[in-house]
Write a structure and sequence with these properties.
Layout: E1 2-6, H1 12-21, E2 25-29, H2 33-43, E3 46-47, H3 51-55, E4 60-63, H4 68-76, E5 90-93, H5 99-111, E6 115-118, E7 121-122, H6 124-130, E8 133-138, H7 141-151, E9 155-162, H8 166-194, H9 199-206, H10 214-224, H11 234-251, H12 256-270
Parallel strand pairs: 1-2, 1-4, 2-3, 4-5, 5-6, 8-9
Antiparallel strand pairs: 7-8
Helix pairs in contact: 8-10, 8-11, 8-12, 11-12
């Protein structure tokens, strides 16, 4: 397929690479053009000066940027995707953003007969680099199936949750759950250390039971050692939790634990941990 990829950050850079390696014709755009030029050298791709230029002749345009404002800029801006993309093509937004911006773009795109899928990701930088991401999508089933031909290059699982906006709402559920799990694990490890237990033996025991989780199996040791350099940053998590908490104001959901953990992440930021990964919640419990 002829595709465009807008945004070559820690996620987008390897994702676009998987598209190129799987035979798709890829044009890229990135605000830092030197990064896009480096990607093109590595993958024999094409560099466009604007999102609109990148989108010309593309069957699917992927965006993976920072937040709602960034999505609005690269899609709806003067040199945005919608000023270059052709009727009948598809926009897939991989940004973790609000359901509101997804619905806004969908409405404008539909007026131009352009499909839209909101498709936030789970798996972090490691998942992007290994091509093992989980995708939660919102949109029309036929549009989703067309875009899935390309997305399968870097995904191990893709689920169409419901109409446009549903992917973003599902990602909010994902972040709410992770926040609670990491806080519980942090307190459990802290308790084990204070009780002078052999933490490795405790983990060996409880990981075979109901306390098992991906976070426990993959992060307990690094959390105990104070190592927090594994990708998804505290700043990004607070951005995601703010989106979820804002949505909860709209739908009436009670997110007491999420609010609490968000404040704990603010404590981590105060310790200088803005770029530490999310498992750094334990840092605020350390003596």
């Amino acid at each position: 397929m002829r595709v465009a990829f807008i945004g070559l950050g820690v996620m987008g850079y390897p994702m676009a690479g998987y598209l190129a390696r799987n035979g798709h014709d890829v044009v890229v755009y990135n605000r830092t053009s030197t990064k896009a030029a480096r990607w093109c050298e590595e993958h024999d791709g094409n560099l466009a000066p604007t999102p609109a230029d990148a989108s010309k002749s593309a069957e699917v345009v992927f965006t993976c940027v920072g937040n709602d404002d960034d999505v609005r800029d690269v899609v709806l801006g003067e040199t945005g995707v919608l000023n270059g993309i052709s009727s009948g093509s598809i926009i897939v937004d991989h940004t973790t953003a609000s359901a509101a911006i997804a619905r806004e773009i969908h409405g404008i795109a539909a007026e131009k007969s352009i499909g839209f899928i909101d498709a936030p990701l789970s798996g972090g930088q490691a998942g992007a680099e290994s091509g093992q991401l989980t995708i939660m999508a919102g949109g029309n089933e036929e549009v989703f199936e067309r875009a899935a031909v390309a997305m399968e290059c870097y995904a191990r699982a893709m689920t169409l949750i419901g109409p446009v906006g549903s992917g973003q709402l599902a990602k909010m559920v994902n972040q709410i759950c992770i926040a609670g799990i990491v806080q519980g694990l942090s307190e459990g490890l802290h308790f084990a250390e204070q009780a002078e237990l052999d933490v490795a033996k405790v983990i060996e025991a409880i990981s075979k039971g109901a306390a098992q989780s991906w976070q426990l199996e993959n992060r307990w040791e690094t959390m105990t050692n104070g190592e927090f350099e594994f990708g998804f940053a505290v700043d990004w998590m607070r951005k995601d939790l703010a989106i979820a908490l804002d949505e909860a104001q709209n739908n009436g959901a009670t997110l007491e634990l999420t609010q609490l953990v968000d404040r704990f992440y603010a404590d981590v930021q105060a310790l200088g941990g803005n770029r530490w990964d999310t498992s750094s919640l334990i840092a605020r419990l350390k003596p």
